[in-house]
C-alpha cells in the first residue's frame, strides 16, 4: 500500500510507473472491498466490488463460457467447463477398485474429508464389501480436499489402508458439492463401466443393504434407463434463493421460476448404469448448479430421453428414530434408506437390521 503513496515525480518513465502503481493500488483496494463485503447480505448495493466482479466474469467468460449472462454477485459459483475440468482432476484415483469383470453394484458415497469416523462406521456396517458372496458390490468415497497439508496426509493414510477414496482437486464447501457428483460420474464412467447398477448415498445415510440386494435389485434387474429415488415432481420444491442456505441456487439458474423442475432427492439414489455415460456426456459444457442432486438427478437427467423413474419416497426417511424403529421389523420394514446423522445411529440401525435379518431366517 505504502509504495503507491510515495511520490514519483521526474522523468517520463517514472510517471508511467507511478500511474501503473496507482492503478494497481486501486485494483487492490477494490479487491479488498470485495473480500470484506463477502458474506454480508446487502443485496441491492452497487459497489466497485460488483463492477470488478462483473469484469472478472467477463474475463472468466472470454474463453467461451457455456453459461448465459450472469449477475456479478454470484461470481463464486460461476464454473465454466475449464474450471470444472481443473477442479475435478483427481488427487487420489484408485483406478483398480472395479478390476473384476462382473460387478453388480457400485456405491459411491459423497463424504466430507473431515468425516473419518463416519467412513469408519460405514465400512464396518452396510458398506462392507464382504457381506454377500453371490452379489458383487464395490464402494468408493468421493472427497474434496482440505486446505492444509497435515489433513491431506491423514486422508492419504486413510486411503493407504482402505483404498476406497476418490479425491477431487477442490476445497470442500457447499458450493463445491456438485463437483463431487461430477468426479463420481466421470470416475465410474471411466473405471467401473461394467457395474450393472450405481447407487449414491451421503456419508450420513444408512441403507438397508439386505433389502436393496434381496428386494430392490431383483425388481429392477431387467430394467434399462431407470432411476430409483425419491422423486420431487416438477414445480413441487421451492427454489432457495437465500445466499446463506446450503441449498442456495443463484438467480441466473432457473430464472423466472419459483419451483424446481423434476429431480431426485439425493441422499439415496440407485440407477441403471447405462445412464452413466449419457450423464457424463451431458455434463460436458452444462451449466454448473451448486446443489448436487438438482444438478445430477434433475438438470442433467432431464436432458436425457426416456428415463424411467421409480419413486421410493415412501421407502426413505430423514426421521432417525422412526427409521431405527422400522428397521427392527425385519421383513416387515418398508425402509430402504434413512438419514443417520447422530453419531452412533449408523451402528444402531445396523444392529437392528442384522438382528432382524437373523430373526427372519427360516
Ligand atoms: C466461441 O464462441 C463464438 C461465439 O459464440 C463461436 O463462434 C466460436 O465458435 C466459439 N469458439 C469455440 C472454440 O467454441
Ligand atoms: C471450491 O473449490 C475451489 C477449488 O479448490 C476453490 O478455489 C474454492 O474456493 C472452493 N469454493 C469454496 C466456496 O470454498
Ligand atoms: C428378468 O428376466 C429374466 C429372464 O428373461 C426372467 O426370468 C425374470 O423373471 C425377469 N425378472 C423380472 C423382475 O422381470
Ligand atoms: C414444468 O413446469 C414448467 C412451469 O410450470 C413448465 O413450463 C414445464 O413445461 C414443466 N416441465 C415438464 C417437463 O413438465
Ligand atoms: C424472465 O422474465 C423477464 C420479465 O418478465 C423476461 O424479460 C425474461 O425474458 C424472462 N427470462 C426467461 C429466461 O424466461
Ligand atoms: C416401499 O414401501 C412400500 C410400502 O410403503 C412397500 O410396499 C414396497 O415394497 C417398498 N419398496 C421396496 C423396494 O422396499
Topology:
Elements lengths: L1 H4 L6 H26 L10 H14 L19 H7 L2 E3 L10 E8 L5 H9 L12 E9 L3 H14 L2 E7 L5 H15 L3 E8 L2 E3 L1 H12 L5 E7 L30 E10 L2 H9 L8 H11 L5 E4 L4 E2 L2 H8 L9 E3 L5 H16 L2
Parallel strand pairs: 2-3, 2-5, 3-4, 7-9, 10-11
Antiparallel strand pairs: 1-4, 5-8, 6-11, 7-8
The chain binds 2-acetamido-2-deoxy-beta-D-glucopyranose (6 copies).
EC number: 2.4.1.-
Main location: Golgi
Protein name: Hexosyltransferase
Protein model, in words:
The protein has 362 residues and is an alpha/beta fold. It folds into two domains: 77 residues, no CATH class; 274 residues, Spore Coat Polysaccharide Biosynthesis Protein SpsA, Chain A. 40% of the residues lie in helices and 18% in strands. The protein contains twelve helices and eleven strands. The strands form two sheets. Strands 1-4-3-2-5-8-7-9 form an eight-stranded mixed beta sheet, with helices on both faces. The chain has a three-stranded mixed beta sheet with strand order 6-11-10, with helices on one face. The N terminus is likely disordered. The chain binds 2-acetamido-2-deoxy-beta-D-glucopyranose (6 copies). One 2-acetamido-2-deoxy-beta-D-glucopyranose binds next to β4. Keywords: Glycoprotein, Glycosyltransferase, Golgi apparatus, Membrane, Signal-anchor, Transferase, Transmembrane, Transmembrane helix. It is found in: Golgi apparatus membrane.
Amino acid at each position: 500500500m505504502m509504495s503507491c503513496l510515495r511520490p514519483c515525480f521526474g522523468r517520463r518513465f517514472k510517471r508511467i510507473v507511478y500511474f501503473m502503481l496507482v492503478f494497481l493500488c486501486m485494483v487492490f483496494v477494490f479487491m479488498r472491498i470485495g473480500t470484506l463485503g463477502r458474506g454480508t447480505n446487502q443485496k441491492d448495493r452497487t459497489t466497485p466490488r460488483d463492477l470488478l466482479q462483473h469484469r472478472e466474469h467477463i474475463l472468466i467468460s472470454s474463453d467461451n463460457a457455456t453459461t448465459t449472462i450472469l449477475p456479478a454477485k454470484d461470481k463464486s459459483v460461476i464454473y465454466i467447463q475449464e474450471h470444472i475440468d481443473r477442479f475435478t482432476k483427481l488427487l487420489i484415483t484408485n483406478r483398480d477398485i472395479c478390476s473384476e469383470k462382473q460387478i453388480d453394484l457400485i456405491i459411491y458415497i459423497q463424504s466430507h474429508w473431515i468425516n473419518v469416523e463416519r467412513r469408519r462406521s460405514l465400512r464396518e456396517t452396510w458398506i462392507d464389501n464382504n457381506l454377500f458372496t453371490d452379489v458383487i458390490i464395490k464402494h468408493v468415497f468421493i472427497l474434496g480436499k482440505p486446505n492444509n497439508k497435515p489433513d491431506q496426509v491423514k486422508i492419504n493414510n486413510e486411503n493407504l489402508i482402505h483404498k476406497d477414496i476418490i479425491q477431487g482437486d477442490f476445497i470442500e464447501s457447499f458450493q463445491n458439492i456438485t463437483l463431487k457428483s461430477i468426479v463420481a460420474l466421470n470416475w465410474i464412467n471411466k473405471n467401473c463401466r461394467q457395474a450393472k447398477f450405481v447407487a449414491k448415498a451421503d456419508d450420513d445415510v444408512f441403507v438397508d443393504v439386505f433389502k436393496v440386494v434381496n428386494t430392490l435389485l431383483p425388481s429392477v434387474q431387467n430394467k434399462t434407463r431407470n432411476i430409483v429415488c425419491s422423486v420431487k415432481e416438477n414445480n413441487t420444491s421451492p427454489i432457495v434463493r437465500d445466499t446463506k442456505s446450503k441449498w442456495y441456487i443463484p438467480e441466473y439458474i432457473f430464472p423466472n421460476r419459483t419451483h424446481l423442475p423434476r429431480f431426485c432427492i439425493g441422499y439415496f439414489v440407485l440407477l441403471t448404469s447405462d445412464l452413466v455415460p449419457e450423464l457424463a456426456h451431458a455434463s460436458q459444457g452444462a451449466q454448473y448448479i451448486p446443489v448436487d442432486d438438482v444438478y445430477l438427478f434433475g438438470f442433467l437427467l432431464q436432458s436425457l430421453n426416456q428415463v424411467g423413474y421409480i419413486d421410493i419416497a415412501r421407502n426413505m426417511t430423514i426421521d432417525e428414530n422412526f427409521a431405527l424403529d422400522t428397521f427392527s421389523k425385519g421383513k416387515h420394514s418398508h425402509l430402504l434408506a434413512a438419514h443417520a446423522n447422530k453419531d452412533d445411529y449408523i451402528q444402531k440401525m445396523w444392529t437392528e437390521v442384522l438382528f432382524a435379518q437373523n430373526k427372519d431366517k427360516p
